[in-house]
Amino acid sequence: MKNLVAIRREDKNPWERRVALIPSHIRDLVKNHGLKFLVQPAPNRIFADADFKCESAKVQEDIKEARIILGIKEMPDSFFEPDKVYVFFSHTIKGQKGNMPMLRRMVDVKCTLIDYEKIVDEKNRRLVFFGRQAGAAGMIESLWTLARRLDAEGLPHPFGSIRRMLDYQSLVEAKENINEIGETIRRDGLPAHLVPFVCGFTGYGHVSQGAQEVFDILPEVEIAAEEFPAFIASGNFSAYRLYKIVFREEHLVRPRSADKTFELQDYYDHPEGYEPVLESYLPFMDVLVNGIYWAPKYPHFVSKAFIRKLYGGPSRPKLRVLGDISCDVEGGIECTLKATDPKEAVFVYDPVHDAAIDGIMGPGPVVMSIYNLPAEIPLESSVFFSQALFPFIPAMAAADYSRDFASCDLPAPIKKAMILFRGEFAPDYQYMKSFL
Fold first, then answer.
1. Which of 3, 15, 2, 6 is CA-nearest to residue 60?
2. Are 14 and 79 found together in one domain?
3. CB of 21 within 8 A of CB of 389?
4. Cβ pair 345, 164 in contact under 8 A
5. pTM for the predicted model, two decimal places
6. What are the percentages of helix, strand and coil residues in the chain, rounded to 5?
7. Which domain holds residue 53?
8. Is 224 helix (H, G, I), strand (E, B) or coil?
9. For residues 193 and 239, is the Cβ–Cβ distance under 8 A?
10. How confident is the model at residue 2 (pLDDT cuts 50, 70, 90)?
11. Residue 291: C-alpha distances to residues 62, 66, 153, 212, 246 (Å)
């Protein structure tokens, strides 16, 4: 039915409480655009069913009447129906094996798939995303991980009051806690074994910005990556400050050929001509937060071989935590052997046996690699996401999907995000046929 949009219940995991459209935005779409909404009931959703009913949405189990179905996470294979339009994070564009049966089913029943991850502007900047929330939650989880590792080693530290992001009522409450920790550091300083305290951040996009937003509540000083070797050599450190470094691509890799200089576009086009250099910084860091995009064509920024070498000496290295927010398994951080979830958030990478040991203590760094971090901040995440998405909904609802792809009248960012059109791969996604 045209102008009827459905919101599917999230059921991939018990921690998922987010929603693609919040009630106040549904009110706007009903009042100003004549749309109608069906919402599947969900007792765990951050907004109650009654909140949607108050905004003229029908809350019911059966949403088959709707032509367009919105969700957040992947949907079960059995859910898809012919000629429907599904909008969600499919996690298929890299050929993720676990989601190929779902993609095959969508092809078989001739669905249309619009993926939020690919809704971008003319400069390829994402328009609908959870990046900042992932970064914020990931930073809090990384600091919690560090605190528990220091506890296990019997070392004093000022981070004892920090909790899991899931254990805060909101991001505001979490930030208030971080601020209290910061005040303690300003007053009492850090114990000698944590001086200098150094946290590195890979990337400068939304994820990294969200992580830095939390870290910057602490009494921090930023050191340019180019200046960091001289900073370490100087020995001029403060116990009342924490230091951060933000690594851009030119700090992560260098050309393999000595007669070449780093060029960003050349790195994107020919990554095989580059080798990682981030590892030279790692022995001086306490925490590395990874928030940069990675694909299999790029080099590993932190290799298993390096971690094996770093932890092969007689003393425990300074580096204790790898907060891998990007969570590409054996990707940019090669020793991210698995994605974790809020129940079992961390594991120790054992570099000798190339194995993951659940928990905090072991012969290697602790890896925090929660795959759905924004779900830990469901209210702020849903409001932010819905604000970005709802302007596109009227055009998506009005479009005639019975026409051919070229004639389907949709805003350019939405059309760019259309992976499947009635079961056929759109022109930009023909390469994905090989995944099936």
1. 6
2. yes
3. yes
4. yes
5. 0.86
6. 40, 15, 45
7. 4-118+384-423
8. coil
9. no
10. confident
11. 39, 37, 27, 10, 10
